[in-house]
Write a structure and sequence with these properties.
Blueprint lengths: L3 E4 L23 E2 H7 L9 H5 L1 E2 L3 E3 L6 E7 L7 E8 L6 E7 L12 E8 L2 E9 L2 E7 L5 E5 L1 E6 L5 E5 L12 E5 L4 E6 L6 H15 L3 H6 L11 E11 L2 E10 L17 E8 L8 E6 H7 L11 H9 L4
Antiparallel strand pairs: 1-16, 2-3, 4-5, 5-6, 6-7, 8-9, 9-10, 10-11, 12-13, 13-14, 14-15, 16-17, 17-18, 18-19
Amino acid sequence: MREFRRLTLIAVAAISLFPSAEQQSPRKSTCPLKEALSGLGISQDGWDADLLACEIFFGFAKERSGKDAVAFGTEGPGANPLRTLHIAVRDGRTGRWHDHETELVGEAGYQINVGSINGLWMHRGFTFVDTHNTPSRSTTAVLDEHWRLVHIVDGGVLDVFQDGTVLYQKGQPHFVPVHPLELGVFNPNSLDERIIYPTTPPGPVRTAFREELQRAFDAIPADWFRIHNHPGSAERLSEYIKAVIAVKERFGITLFVNSVLDGRQFDPVNRSQDRNRDVELITVLRYISHPRKTQYREIRADALRQQIPFATVDELASPETIERIFALPYP
């Protein structure tokens, strides 16, 4: 049986020169904790009465893997109250819910600017709380077994794998030049994190696309880019990701990233909507948990279909197909 899962991105597309929709921040609101519990169908049995009456004012999330745990936020003490994170965990033996508080202040006094809570994961003694900052940016608070904030990941969690590896989507800041969506991995034991997508160095397909795009930019007068506040650099590709799929193999996790390099970039002057120059790309990253062992293949989807027929990337998600892909000739 194949063991894989399709992951959901926080933002479907990378920040693009051609945004398709306007995003807005969610409204902040407060309500008693007991109302939030009722809304999620969680019994109020075993909760402290004072805590049930407490006003929570940013988000509420159940633990993703099915554990009896929830995350929510309240104001902390002080003249400029910190937002205090609560992780409540149910004791399976007594039925009591135990509340653990953490002030959202990280390294060097940095305070997480939280709009809401997107998700909660608990795994192997660590707790990961994905918090919302802007419409396309998240920050993940990493807590140890004593509920202390030990690290802040600049991004939102996509998945936590059995070996403890956290796959995250890096935060997408606003008001910066166009840039591709980035995926990273984080090791909670070593606190090591690294970007794995886009790959470094870029593969042959991305390199060829960049070279062709730079030639198109070079044919446009330099003043046009300055006047229109356009980066004019093919190093910053506009692309969008159609699917991200994780596959469990015997010796690690393999990631499929199905993306499209945006062909509309070739004619920024006329803001062309012609998609004939789009390039659909399949990037396969193997053993993503191990920095020294990670391998990748970057292949045009149409070229891969000639070797291994498939309709959707889900059909590639098996250890046998991964072996076939890595056995193909590669530049």
